# Entry
Amino acid sequence: MTLSNLPKNLNFVLIDDDVIQLFLIKKTLNDKFSQSTITSFSMPEAALEHIYTLKDGDFENQIILLDLNMPAMTGWDVLDNLKQKYGNNLPSNARVYILSSSDLPEDIKKSTEYDMVAGFYSKPLDKLKIDEIMESTFS
Amino acid sequence: MSVKILVVEDQKSVRENIEELLELEGFEVKSADTAGEGFRLIEPFSPDLIISDLMLPDFSGTELIDKLRDLEGFSETPVIIITGNDKPETFRTSMSRGADDYLSKPFKAQELYDSIASQLHKIEIRKENVELIAELSQQSPLPIIRINQFGKLIYSNPAANQINCENFIDLIFERISSKNTLNFDFEFPFEDQLFKAVVTHNNLQGYYNIYFLDITNENKKNIELSQKNELILLKNENLMQFAYIVSHDLKAPIINLRQLTNLIKLKTDENSKLNSPEEPLLELFDQSLSKIEDVMRDLNEILKARDDKSIAVYETFSIREQIEKLSLLFKNDLKMANDAVTIDIDRKYTLNFPVSSFNTLLKNIFEDSMNYNDSNNLLKLEFKYSESEQFKVLEITNNCTSNSLKTSQLNSSSLYKSSTQNDIEKGLAFQIIKNIMNSHEGDFRFQKKDETGCSYKLIFKQHDAL
# Structure
């Protein structure tokens, strides 16, 4: 997988209560994909509202990076809401990647119970991890 | 020594005729012309068998049976009733009142001989059975007692002396009388020990066998185990809380700091020609952050490491829960069965469990199977166990194919005997099961499955309902 093979209209949705993380992830992604659209949310509820407004076609090339440990609504709650709305898989087979500071085995195991979750990455998000995500999504 | 037969008949010609026929066959005979006289002869003569007319001048042959059954040592003496009344209800009444056979007058000599031979054969089998069980009971390290339907102690093995069982027979009998079911168990504290008294009722003989399993240590261990488990759960909870704080609350800002530091360093490198005065400070900051990262990595490693001993205790506890679930699973299977009682064919359970739970598990399964009185009930289980350092492994499968079997109950006694050579617990479990089976009037068989001697198949077929 090379950068030239990637779709031009990459869409990222970032969900993390830590605004510093949002800033850093956004910067890392921007450095690599300057053409991409990055929408970030520090409130998971707002992220869900945004996702719900997307039409089926909008899910094409959509990558959701989701934090787990958030105070009011956790990453698991977000996944449960998405599952309730769309079933086991998101439209156009859009992928969710967990991006968490936690690397506890029970969290990793639990994430495999969701079909829409394509991977579990511990923070920080670096270029290597981004390459893996791209490989997993578009190969 | 010749067989002794007591004849009670008021008609002189019939009485003398029977006497003559019996003496011709070499039996030792005494006779009486009234029920009262016959009853008086029982203890001094000690007959092996009684032949009695139904209608006698003072009281009836069935009343004589009632008196006989209350007499110590004669509760199982067979009685053949003879009568000129050949109505079916007379036959039914006599048999229900405890007669062992019934002959209508006039009868042929051969009919009398056949009836006597049949009763003597039964006596022989019963004696062998009683002797075998008595021998096994005598050798058993666990207290075993037997009480009759009136609450009187009729047997106790040597091991029962340790609990002075005679002192609390009344108490046990009260428990028996207050239960609706004939087979049950209850916990029985005695001094500083705790026993599980397993009560099984023998329908044919009317007595109760009570096995005392010493569960003092098991009980102590269970309490200790529960306490330890609670402590472990609490520790786990605290550990989880701490793990969350380390893995998120502490880790997240450190990750941020590292990324931000790297960003600043990058910028500083880009502008290095400016020889920024902040550069040495940034280097110190970076070093301090590295140290914090090292500490956090160590903390993570500690959290991931497990306390093996705690886990082992926790697993033992959960095994007990598994056993209960498994037992419940069988119970549901049995409830759903309306024809043959079999466990779901496709299932296979393998369970590791402590030796001390073996008896309880098996007993539960078989007792449950007895709750269903369908005459076609056929219980087929195959079980196999092997020993490891800490556990026995029991595999229960039901993929055996077998027809209903009618086999002597002595087979199981033989199995008990052979199994005790290796393992007392195992043998006792079989013995308890055997008694439960006996009391439900079914045919069953233990069958060795392989030459290792630790794999058996058990088949039980309940008798057709009368």
About this structure: The mean pLDDT of chain B is 68.
